[in-house]
Amino acid sequence: MKTNPIYYLIILLFAIGAAVQSIAQTPGGAFIDGDPLPNAPDLATRGTFGVGVRTMMLIHKDQVDVLHGKDGKHPLYDRPLTLEIWYPARIAANKPAMVTYESVFGRANDPKRPLVPFTFTGRASRDAEPDGSGGAYPLVIVSHGYPGSRLLLTYLTENLASKGYVVVAIGHTESTYSDLAPFSSTLLNRPLDDLFVLNEMARLSAKTGNTFLAGLLNADNTALIGYSMGGYGALNTVGAGFSPQAMKSFGQATGGSMALEPRTMASPAYKASLDPRIKAMVAFAPWGMERGMWDSTGLAGLTLPALFVAGSKDDVSGYEKGIKAIYDGAVNADRYLLTYVNARHNVAPNPPPMASLMPGVSVDDYNHYAEPVWNEHRINNINQHFVTAFLGIHLKKLDYYKYLDLPAPPAEGAWTGFKPRTTIGLEMRHAKP
Question: Would you kindly state where each structural domain of the chain is located, as residue ranges?
């Protein structure tokens, strides 16, 4: 009996597919989010430390419950926060530094986008022993978008921990995929969560503490990284007080609530809340400028070094009247603006997980991660490079200015750290006070 050659071709394709799947499931043999591509810029490469990761729960007591109440008056509640913490760790030579993260697609309370659990792999070791050989490490606090997850930027959080930072990503209650609530909670709580976590990290890292953080980090040497609504919160946390228009819009959305007033530029309490322990800020696609959350007075209040990252076609936060307008208006800050030409809003997160290709997962959940023009792994490597340079300057006092003070547009071969022919589509601006 003669067998059709197409039969053998099908069998061969199945065998190849099985082999590829087997490699992808092998801890040492897979390309994992955050790994450097062959054309990655120099500082995308991981550092010399092993990376540990732990989950921690905190309770922020007696917070305004803006989602409940009437006539502008609200009860208080104890606000839970889940943190994911990456840190330099001692990893045994015979133990693969791999971790399985658990997350979800979808949006809570949205029947059109039901929650779908999924897992993905990272290069860290769960609950590994901290490596205190580097002394007390700088602290980096990371804030996700709306909705989002504390695991949304693992390519960056792991990378920074390998370079001698303790990185704390906040799962913002009422703003994650699994507990999504009305927007007013996110508008109010982002800067409050940032400051609370900073205070808790300072408390828990005291040498007399009884957690793994004791003596491990220096909260007096902190940076904030925020994406989208995380960038909104980071800006307000470090000096960009909200505008009268922001206060008006918040009051209209919440039945006259004044809860946002202490975060406005006009509030006597606002300036007193600014924390000198925070030394620098990175804002990916920060939301709010097009909605009037800041005016010129508020943006002038930003005096810390800042790195902004944006897509020139951002259709969520806006570019010319959004992110670039924030950059232009922060006249008292030493600031940079990295632009991905023709990218939209997703210039910060991990690439779309493989699970987003599963039947039944909404295309909107895939698009929550994906960029239509840019390769997401490429974006991740470039972000690793520039964030490493920026934080290296401001938290570690390293001489990395050559990686940031670049000609614009990028003349061929003129961007330090980039391989030939790899700067196309990038723009870097720099302005001083």
Answer: 1-30, 37-431
